[in-house]
Design a protein that fits this description.
Length: 291
């Protein structure tokens, strides 16, 4: 049985899905996580682990012992005030550790608006929104750390994540999903299980300093996806609104960038076939098994 000692900065849906994948693959998992809540002992899918307090202001110093013992680190904490809290607080400890795999989870918002055209890992990064600007700055900090300290670091640029629990079908059933009148708006998405599977692939095929787009094969408009989901649930007469009628600022910002994210590099390098190549397979699976 293979063993892995993994330290997860943040323990959200991607990290949890990745740990589930490790369990499925019969790994002996030694797990440590961080949380904004007070430190505590927890259990996840049969694994007993320590969750340590870590936020913008303080952290539980006991986590340093676990961090030094880890051989893999997954970073899913977003930037705060244009800073990466992990690098700010722990870079010197990582330099002196035995870590052989560090993965920073970034976002495709670093590309900014490309007017609906395709982007690859070699495309210009020209973010205009605050989260994209912060993500790009932090990516460069990780790459600088990788070069200066010879650490094994890769970056995954994640598209919009959906899962069996969080998806357009759920929002439709709650009555919170609407059609937005915005022509030629494209974005990419990815099911969380595909992220976990690619993370797992990277354990055995790792190349430091590389960046990978994580997206499915079919960039689409949100309206296209919403209409498909509505057909699956036999929901008719969806409300349609104009972009300027959107009240949520985060949702409104979503419509400022339009691009199609290429996954060719990722699929080729990791020899990976997506479990959910498009939203059609993903939403059909969710409807048949979880809704």
């Amino acid at each position: 049985m293979k063993s892995i000692n993994i330290f997860c900065f943040g323990f959200g849906q991607v990290a949890k899905s990745f740990v589930k994948k490790l369990i499925i693959e019969n790994y002996n998992v030694i797990l440590t996580t961080t949380s904004r809540s007070n430190s505590s002992k927890k259990n996840f899918n049969g694994i007993n682990y320590n969750s340590y307090l870590f936020n913008s202001y303080k952290y539980d110093s006991d986590l340093l012992r676990e961090l030094k013992a880890a051989d893999h680190i997954l970073v899913s904490i977003p930037p705060e005030k244009q800073e990466d809290l992990v690098i700010k607080n722990f870079s010197k400890y990582m330099e002196d550790s035995k870590i052989k795999w560090i993965t920073y989870l970034s976002a495709t918002s670093v590309y900014g608006d490309h007017k609906g055209e395709w982007v690859s890992e070699n495309s210009e990064t020209k973010p205009t929104l605050p989260n994209g600007i912060a993500r790009l700055k932090v990516e460069n900090l990780w790459l600088s750390l990788q070069m200066k300290k010879k650490l094994s670091i890769q970056i995954f640029r994640l598209s919009g994540i959906y899962s069996n629990e969080k998806n357009i079908l759920v929002r439709l059933k709650l009555g919170t999903a609407k059609l937005i009148n915005k022509n030629d708006h494209y974005f990419s998405r990815i099911h969380v299980e595909d992220i976990a599977n690619i993370l797992f692939k990277s354990l055995s095929k790792f190349k430091t300093g590389e960046i990978y787009n994580i997206a499915d094969d079919k960039p689409s408009s949100l309206d296209e996806i919403t209409l498909h989901a509505a057909r699956l649930l036999d929901i008719k007469d969806l409300k349609k609104i104009e972009v300027n009628e959107i009240e949520n600022e985060m949702v409104k910002n979503f419509y400022k960038d339009s691009k199609k994210v290429s996954n060719k590099k990722t699929k080729s390098y990791f020899s990976y076939n997506l479990k959910f190549p498009t939203y059609v397979e993903g939403l059909n699976y969710i409807r048949d098994n979880f809704i």
